[in-house]
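Why do we care about 3D structure at all? Because function follows from shape, and shape follows, mostly, from sequence. That is the central idea of this module. The next example makes it concrete: a single protein chain, its amino acid sequence, and then its structure expressed as tokens.
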Amino acid sequence: MAKKLFNTKIGLALGGGAAKGIAHVGVLKALEDQKVSIRYIAGTSVGAIIASLYAFNVSVDDIGGLAKRLTMSKVTSFKLSKTGFFTTASLRDLIVLLIYLLLQLNSILSQNHLTYSENYQLFSNISVLLQK
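And the structure:
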């Protein structure tokens, strides 16, 4: 049980690293299960991706599902350059697409009065598109 002490606001900073990214999903789920409200969230690298999705009100289960579907070939490719051996341009493109779709969804929902099940179905359809 979470207790609210002295009007406390909780912020969460998420670190980088692919394995930590998966762990972040578990931490967010555990905090939600304990009814801990995250008021501020930020991150670096994969933590920033998780934080941005969470800030856009993507459910922890959906974030976890997206993380499970990602493979190394979907998020990076080999590229020999001065800055390193890998490029994450494909991951950047995926994130831009996801944020675009979330903004479109937010616009649709603000103009419509859809039921919860209609909202869920709409988000599920977007998730299917992202899997392709």
